[in-house]
Design a protein that fits this description.
The complex is a heterodimer of chains A (240) and B (216). Chain A has a single domain, classed as MetI-like fold (Orthogonal Bundle). Helices cover 76% and strands 0% of the residues of chain A. Chain A contains 9 helices and no strands. In chain A, helix 6 runs antiparallel to helix 8. The longest helix of chain A is centred in the first third of the chain and has 35 residues. Chain B has a domain of 151 residues: MetI-like fold (Orthogonal Bundle), CATH 1.10.3720.10. Chain B starts with a helix and ends with a helix. Classes of the chains: A mainly alpha (240), B mainly alpha (216). Chains A and B meet through helix 2, helix 3, helix 6, helix 7 and helix 8 of A and helix 3, helix 4, helix 6, helix 7 and helix 8 of B.
Chain lengths: 240, 216
């Protein structure tokens, strides 16, 4: 491989990382917004949030990407910059999976904690912010870590739309060199390294957050089997 | 926004062809992932680390890299090595292999969830290792893992459109072909989007019902 081709790959890594960070932020915002809405006291809010998660989790991420790239411009006249279209499609889809994680973790907080908050006459928002979230967030981390890796794998899908990410650059190099074993091995290794950094980073974060609560790190066999709602991209399940 | 029911009607025959291919991929891919996942899970329990370590690294590698790139790897590299498979076969093997690294974790959890007393009883009854597994441990473990495996079948369903990229004409492939021929994107893409929800949502309800019955 020549240095020019490596430059192509480097640019691909940069696009993938950009896409990962941006869609990760969108997904996190959606996950917390919709996840908390699913524990709201008004049924209509819970229903709408539930509808959102079922629709976005029900369909495939790739179809969402096609939809944002091809249907939005024709149907509504919104032509998005490819990076933003990719961010939007990935963020909305993976956000729906994240919402299930947030909901599961919020529900797994001991009910006495919520009742304590009511007894102290906290407002619902204070209860969420001061009592529920600090205990729920550390429980979410292992699932979010899985989801983040799924999101990284999902970013490869935008290459189908011609965005110059890492998977796309692999394709270009394959066409240039007329051989595929070498470049695809490198690209798979690069994805693995990024995923490795992400999961180890999240593990460190979990350890730090759980130290504040005095809870053990990691997930038990029981949690693995009771991981509900994994109906989607690989392992993005909720902790119960 | 214009919605053309005529386009939907024109697309429907293609849609059924695509659905059939999607279900084929799903059925074969699930079979591969169930079988191979069990193999990985059992290999991870062998006493020597010279087996556990390579299996652990390889499966984590497959789990943490995009299915799309793995698919290209199989599709373009295997012919260079002299293995020529049809696109459908390549896709089914790739998706089955990819998901086997997930089902392996499910099996592992299921095996760990079998109470230690069952192992001890098998030892006390002097059962050979083979019988301990086939008559005591696996029947109890498999019962627990059925719902979790079901979840991964649904996940796999949603990953089947990726096979479009290696020219398999499943639902999304058919929709794309139709859009390019007729220049109508909205209708076919929406139809298959809805079709995925219509299949996946009842399936997830079924899995939840199974979970209530089988896992305690």
């Amino acid at each position: 491989m020549t240095s020019g081709l490596w430059e192509l790959v480097l640019h691909g890594i940069w696009v993938t990382v950009q896409l990962l960070v941006l869609s990760g932020l969108v997904a996190a915002a959606v996950a917390f917004g919709v996840g908390m809405a699913r524990t709201h006291r008004l049924w209509i809010v819970r229903f709408l949030a539930g509808l959102y998660t079922e629709v976005f989790r029900g369909t495939s991420a790739l179809i969402m990407i096609f939809w944002v790239f091809f249907v939005l411009p024709v149907a509504f006249g919104w032509q998005l910059v490819p990076l933003w279209a990719g961010t939007l499609a990935l963020g909305l889809t993976y956000g729906a999976y994240g919402a299930e994680i947030v909901r599961g973790a919020l529900n797994s907080v001991d009910p006495a904690q919520r009742e304590g908050g009511i007894a102290l006459s906290f407002t619902p928002w204070q209860r969420m912010r001061l009592v529920l979230l600090p205990q729920a967030v550390p429980e979410m981390i292992p699932s979010f870590s899985n989801l983040l890796v799924e999101l990284l794998k999902g970013t490869a899908l935008v290459s189908i739309m011609g965005m110059g990410d890492l998977a796309f650059s692999a394709n270009l190099v394959r066409l240039a060199l007329q051989q595929s074993a070498e470049i695809y091995t490198y690209v798979l290794l690069i994805y693995f390294v990024i995923a490795f950094v992400l999961t180890r980073g999240m593990r460190g974060l979990e350890r730090k957050l759980k130290a504040g609560l005095g809870r053990p790190v990691g997930r038990s066999a029981d949690q693995e089997l009771h991981r509900p709602e994994t109906t989607g991209v690989g392992a993005g399940g909720a902790v119960r | 926004m214009k919605w053309d029911w005529g386009a939907v009607a024109d697309f429907m025959p293609k849609f059924w062809d695509g659905l059939l291919v999607t279900l084929q991929i799903l059925a074969l891919g699930s079979l591969i992932s169930f079988a191979l996942g069990l193999v990985w899970a059992l290999l991870m329990r062998t006493p020597t680390r010279w087996v556990r370590w390579p299996v652990g690294v390889v499966t984590e590698f497959i789990r943490d890299t995009p299915l799309l790139v793995q698919l290209f790897f199989f599709f373009y590299v295997l012919p260079e090595w002299g293995l020529t498979w049809s696109a459908l076969t390549t896709g089914v093997v790739a998706i089955g292999l990819h998901y086997s690294t997930y089902t392996m974790q499910v099996y592992r959890a299921g095996i760990e969830a079998v109470p230690a007393g069952q192992w001890e009883a098998a030892t006390a009854l002097n059962l050979p290792v083979r019988h301990t597994w086939t008559a005591v441990i696996l029947p109890q473990a498999i019962r627990r893992v059925v719902p979790a495996l079901g979840n991964y079948v649904i996940s796999m369903l949603k990953d089947t459109p990726i096979l479009m990229t290696i020219t398999v004409l499943e639902m999304l492939g058919q929709a794309r072909l139709f859009s390019q021929q007729n220049f109508q994107f909205t209708e076919p893409l929406t139809v298959i989007g809805v079709a995925f929800i219509v299949i996946a949502y009842p399936a997830s309800l079924l899995v939840r019902a199974l979970e209530r019955r089988l896992v305690r």
